[in-house]
Amino acid sequence: MKVISKEEGVGALWKGLLPRLTRMAPGQAITWSVVMRVTSIFENQELEISENKIKM
């Protein structure tokens, strides 16, 4: 990091951050939306317990 900041300047350490963030943000938003939706589905789903019991 010292070499990069010395040879290319401190701005070189941040080069590429904006393109990376613009790629990551939509993917994270989609992932978050899917996780929240699936969680909501499982929380609202009523599980029916069968009266049939397994005999051993």
Automatic annotation (TrEMBL):
Keywords: Membrane, Transmembrane, Transport. It is a multi-pass membrane protein. It comes from the Eukaryota. PROSITE patterns: SOLCAR. Solcar repeats lie at residues 1-41. Pfam families: Mito_carr. One of its GO terms (cellular component) is membrane. The keyword Cell division does not apply. The keyword Membrane applies. It is found in: Membrane. Belongs to the mitochondrial carrier (TC 2.A.29) family. This is Mitochondrial Carrier (MC) protein.
